[in-house]
Write a structure and sequence with these properties.
Radius of gyration: 24 Å
Shape: globular
CATH architecture of the largest domain: 3-Layer(aba) Sandwich
Largest sheet: 6 strands, mixed
CATH superfamily of the largest domain: Zn peptidases
Number of helices: 15
Helix content: 25-40%
CATH topology of the largest domain: Aminopeptidase
Number of domains: 3
Strand content: 15-25%
Distance between the termini: 5 Å
Amino acid sequence: MVTQTLPDGTALAGEVTDLLVHLIRNACVNDGRAESGDEYRSVDVLRQYLTADSAGRGMDVEIFEPTPGRQSLVARIEGSRADAPTLMLMGHTDVVPVSPEGWQRDPFGGEVVDGEVWGRGAVDMLNLTSSMAVAFKHLAESGFRPDGTLIYLAVADEEAGGDHGAKHLVEHELDAVRADYMITESGGIVTRTPSGPKVTVHVGEKGAHWVRLHVGGTPGHGSRPLRTDNALVKAARIVDRFASHHPKAQIGDVWRRFVDGMEFPPAIRDEVLDPDRVWDFVHESPRLQLARHAHACTHTTISPNVIHGGVKTNVIPDQVAIDVDIRTLPGQTEAEIDAMIAEIIGPDLVGDVRVELIHYSEPSSSPMDTPLWDALARVTQRLVPGAALIPGLIVGGTDARFFRAAGTVSYGFGLFSERLTSDRYASMFHGHDERIDVDSLALTTDLWLNLAPSLLGGR
């Protein structure tokens, strides 16, 4: 039973803003090394915030640290019925590296300007991590005692694969994070359509098949390049082949339902749902963000992103390594991708290349006909009158995949003001000048405050 009247998201927006600013300034930058991240800094802030004064009563808080400095925090409001569902709100505390020279403001300053909070992680995804914490704390303070258990997880290492965070927790601490339903990034963008506002719920994500191509050659003196076996020259040809490869389009059910829900003009709809025409659309459309998203949702994507090689300007290199980011569609297998890689390299060079798999995750998805979907629809309609949910596919990766593999229905969702358009959101994700408006923080906080009792019930 809720023994106190809960404040709404607008009343709590300042509290969420303050917490978000602290998390941004902690600069928990994850560059992929085990010694990076330092998420303990934000876990300490969150632990103190959640348990300050009398707020800790009614919740249990645990901290897990599989690697020094790589902490994750789990807080629980225990349900009263063992047969009731469990809901987990999960946000990560690490952020990706930044190039400060591309920013208008200090990326770790946490400045609040014209109603927006600036800083690395403001969009990905410290805004949700903060609003979830604030809603969770105020539910506990209010005396909220749900039928089903409510869990808040602030997790480490999302930005580099989850080995020190979600993957570790699911594989070694599953009892602490086991849930029937889970919400994490992203989703929640409100788009106006002819029939009313539509809000995307991400129900699945593509897989990752990252490879390192070791290209071999023969060393020699750079002053005598004629007819030499230069690994860098071969690598350049291979990079061009990967960048120009044209995989066949696949139109999946989630993409079709997203397109229908968005009510695109018939000319666009027909093109993006036709596997024989979507390639031309994504390369010719002036709507760049839509083109990129349509391409990623309908194709295996291939992006050669890192190259290392050579030892000195006057030495012909005998070893070059190329890292390629390949994202796979639902239903694709490792064997299919391996065959595609060999085809792209080509018979003339395949003997000079050793392919190393450096990261792999399968595509994952959750069903839409669930009590969580229904609860999200009810709450969203209350907060955004007339809104309807539509499913979407995340073309990157999130920690949801670990929980789906453990049997948890997992969605990517939030709720943002219309100030944050889909194009603006996409441009700031891992980009320059990342920022979130305070109205969005208020809306998302309202979402969590209403979702927990709607799904979990209580007496």
